[in-house]
Design brief:
The protein is α+β, with helices and mostly antiparallel strands and about 180 residues long. The chain has one helix at about 15-45, and strands at about 60, 65-75, 75, 80-85, 90, 95-105, 110-115, 120, 130, 135-145, 155-160, 165-175. A hairpin with a 2-residue loop joins strand 11 and strand 12. The relative contact order is 0.17.
Amino acid sequence: MSAPSEYTPEEPTDSASATEPRLRLLVSVIAVMCVLAYVGFALLAGVWTAADDQAAPIATIVSGQPIYEVQTATYIDAEYQPVDPADHFRPDNTIYITYRVRAAAPGDVIRVVYIVNGATQPEHPNDRDTFRRGGNVRGYFVIQGSVEHGLATGDYRAELFYNDAFAAAADFTVAEETQIK
């Protein structure tokens, strides 16, 4: 029979001690990448947007009304959120007036009245919406000119009424491209 061999631990070599700082660096890089991935996901999912830090182009929101956000933009996303809110537009733009409502009840009505250069415009059937279901609602109204002429230039005001009570207004300007600041 052979004698059992005796175990003697080896002294750490230089390569083992050099691996530890590399491992710490690798763990740090992975942690930073995880944070960046989370922020990127939050931006894509709409949890946090740079637009949250900007003042919305809002003229008036009446206290006590369920409408709590009104913005104007040339584009909206699939959830009716404004993309690049603005308050200056060209005559050939389509302008979306987006809004959010807290605790809408089925049958509640929201409508918009347009005032262009001080003159109230006739109401169009698309300027009114009745909620079919209750809860928190996001919606929009749209205004655009004819294909040949576009929107009239000037100062616009979109007044929103909730169940016939004035609730909010958005002011915006339509001007030729060279006049937009």
